[in-house]
Design goal:
The radius of gyration is 21 Å and the shape is flat. Helix 1 packs across helix 2. The chain has two helices and no strands. The longest helix is centred in the last third of the chain and has 29 residues. About 60% of the residues lie in helices and about 0% in strands. By secondary structure, the protein is mainly α. It has a domain of about 35 residues.
Length: about 80
C-alpha cells in the first residue's frame, strides 16, 4: 500500500517559488537571447546576453526583497532586549 502524499507547509511554498522563479528566468534568458543581434543564437556571445539579463533580473529581485524586508521590520526595535 502506497503512503498518501502529504503537504509540507514549510517546504511546499519554497518549491513553488523555485519552480516559478526558474521558469521566469528561463523565459527571460530565451527571449533576450533570441533578440540578440548575433546571427548564431547558440553562440556564447548571444547566450551571454541572455544570462546577463537574467543576472540583472535576479539582482533586482534581491534588492526588492531587501527593501521590502527593511520596510516591514522598521518598527520592530531590538529583538531580545530586556526592558526594565
Amino acid at each position: 500500500m502506497k503512503p498518501t502524499p502529504t503537504l509540507d507547509a514549510n517546504t511546499d511554498p519554497l518549491k513553488i517559488g523555485k519552480s516559478v522563479g526558474l521558469g521566469l528566468v528561463a523565459v527571460i534568458a530565451a527571449d533576450i537571447t533570441s533578440k540578440s543581434p548575433h546571427e548564431d543564437k547558440k553562440s556564447p556571445e548571444a547566450l551571454l546576453e541572455g544570462y546577463k539579463a537574467t543576472w540583472w533580473f535576479c539582482f533586482a529581485c534581491i534588492v526588492f526583497v531587501v527593501v521590502l524586508s527593511v520596510w516591514g521590520l522598521r518598527g520592530i526595535g531590538r529583538v531580545g532586549h530586556k526592558r526594565d
